């Protein structure tokens, strides 16, 4: 569950949005319309106004790190702060690599040698370690081929079945059809719901 | 002080012959440094002669307020220098205040203790002791602080994605910045640490050499040098730690966000 009330950041908003448990909304819109800006603001990574809450409580009542563990943002390009892949995980031995077609040896890989697709899949697994209540995904399958996109979506569906709410920014109309319950377009800083027949 | 040999201005003029030789070689080989060499040498002569005059009259006047005024002027100049040496700076008054306060407070405390407890000249603020001591400590702290802030700001800017990745996984701002804070503090401390390690073997420090040249017993000169090195390294370390933490704090906020919008790049 995620409730967003009067969220504003730069030219974005006020945005009002409410997601039920297990609900997926897709957000589309031209490049530069501020989709990433919106996701960053929801994750409280940039200064913004508005009141947000999940079932665990209001954003204003908890430290920002706690909020970000519950409302997890996967940026389009992931960041890595150590040399080895394993150092980026809390419990490397507990991670289900096979679900995204990665071998267990991936833990020992060097970050600099990862392909963009491997980075993206590892960044997703890393994010799931905290069992977030809400997932904010910024074009998550852009660097993935068809097969890995299918695996990614299957893994995401498992999260949704467990009750996670998802905001999915995507350029892929098929993905929107496959995954989303509702579809919004971000235009002039406002979210407009798109009716699908 | 019996062995002290006084130099005449003629001796000094003669010493500059080697510099002139450099200039001639530079013109002949078209190295293009002759103009810089001449300008810097002239500037040095004027600055040092003026400082000599200033110190001489300060020592003669023996006024605590005038000594304090000179000390504050030095601190102001060092603060500006710290600011000028950073490629990326914190915006607004804090860009000057963080480095200046960290440097000023650390140097101030260390110099006060040195004068009132250790060296104990009579009176304790005697400009003959206070100003050279302050100058040596401040010069090193200034270099350390500017190095550490420059390193920190560059690292935070370059590693924005890595820092935000940690924040997004629930790290607080201090955890996320830790490697870069450590890197900045090391950069600021390294010159002092290296100087201590090489001293006496590779380099003979200028102050000690000066004392020996003016006839002081080498053992006494060594004692003074040790004292000064401890003060320098201590003050530089404190200044570097305070400045780095202060700047890291200014570039984040209470919601654990990285605020690179508080940073700007100087146009040089």
Radius of gyration of chain B: 22 Å
Q: Would you report the number of β strands of chain B?
A: 2
Strand order of the largest sheet of chain B: 1-2
Class derived from helix and strand content of chain B: mainly alpha
Q: Rough shape of chain A?
A: globular
Q: Segments of chain A where pLDDT lies below 50 for 5+ residues?
A: none
- Number of DSSP helical runs of chain A: 5
Q: What is the N-to-C order of secondary-structure elements of chain B (H for helix, E for strand)?
A: HHHHEHHHHHHE
Q: Please describe the biggest sheet of chain B, giving its number of strands, its sense, and whether it closes into a barrel.
A: 2 strands, antiparallel
What amount of the residues of chain A lies in strands? 25-35%
Largest interface: A-B, 24 and 21 residues
Oligomer: heterodimer
The SSE string of chain A, one letter per element, is: EEEHEEHEHEHEHEE
Number of domains of chain B: 2
Alpha-carbon distance between the two ends of chain A: 26 Å
The chain-level structural class of chain A is alpha/beta
Work out the helicity level of chain A. Answer: 25-40%
Distance between the termini of chain B: 49 Å
């Amino acid at each position: 569950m995620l409730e967003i009330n009067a969220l504003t950041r730069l030219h974005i908003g006020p945005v009002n949005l409410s997601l039920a448990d297990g609900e997926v909304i897709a957000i589309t819109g031209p490049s530069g319309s501020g989709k990433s800006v919106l996701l960053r603001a929801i994750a409280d990574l940039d200064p913004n106004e508005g009141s947000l809450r999940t079932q665990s409580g209001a954003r204003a009542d908890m430290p920002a790190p706690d909020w970000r563990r519950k409302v997890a943002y996967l940026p389009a390009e992931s960041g890595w702060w150590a040399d080895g892949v394993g150092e980026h995980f809390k419990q490397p031995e507990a991670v289900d690599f096979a679900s995204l077609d990665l071998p267990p040896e991936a833990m020992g890989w060097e970050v600099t040698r990862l392909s963009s697709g491997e980075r993206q899949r590892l960044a997703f697994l890393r994010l799931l370690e905290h069992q977030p209540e809400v997932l904010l995904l910024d074009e998550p399958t852009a660097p993935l081929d068809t097969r890995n996109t299918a695996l990614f979506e299957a893994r995401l569906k498992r999260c949704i079945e467990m009750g996670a709410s998802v905001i999915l920014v995507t350029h892929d109309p098929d993905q929107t059809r496959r995954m989303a319950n509702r579809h919004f377009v971000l235009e002039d800083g406002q979210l407009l719901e798109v009716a699908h027949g | 002080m019996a062995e002290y040999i006084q130099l005449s201005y003629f001796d000094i003029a003669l010493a500059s012959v080697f510099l002139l030789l450099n200039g001639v070689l530079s013109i002949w080989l078209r190295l293009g440094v002759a103009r810089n060499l001449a300008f810097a040498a002239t500037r040095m002569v004027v600055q040092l002669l003026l400082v000599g005059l200033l110190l001489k009259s300060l020592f003669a006047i023996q006024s605590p307020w005038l000594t304090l005024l000179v000390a504050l002027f030095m601190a102001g100049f060092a603060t500006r220098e710290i600011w000028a040496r950073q490629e990326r700076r914190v915006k607004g008054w804090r860009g000057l205040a963080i480095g200046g306060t960290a440097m000023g407070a650390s140097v101030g405390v260390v110099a006060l203790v040195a004068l009132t407890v250790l060296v104990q000249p009579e009176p304790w603020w005697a400009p003959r002791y206070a100003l050279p001591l302050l100058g040596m400590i401040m010069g090193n702290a200034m270099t350390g602080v500017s190095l550490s802030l420059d390193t920190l700001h560059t690292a935070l800017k370059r590693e924005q994605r890595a820092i935000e990745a940690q924040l997004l996984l629930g790290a607080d701002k201090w955890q996320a910045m830790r490697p870069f804070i450590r890197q900045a503090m090391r950069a600021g401390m390294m010159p002092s640490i290296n100087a201590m390690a090489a001293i006496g073997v590779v380099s003979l420090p200028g102050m000690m050499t000066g004392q020996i040249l003016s006839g002081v017993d080498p053992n006494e000169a060594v004692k003074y040098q040790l004292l000064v090195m401890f003060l320098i390294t201590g003050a530089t370390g404190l200044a570097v730690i305070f400045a780095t933490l202060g700047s890291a704090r200014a570039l984040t906020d209470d919601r654990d966000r990285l605020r690179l919008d508080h940073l700007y790049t100087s146009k040089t």
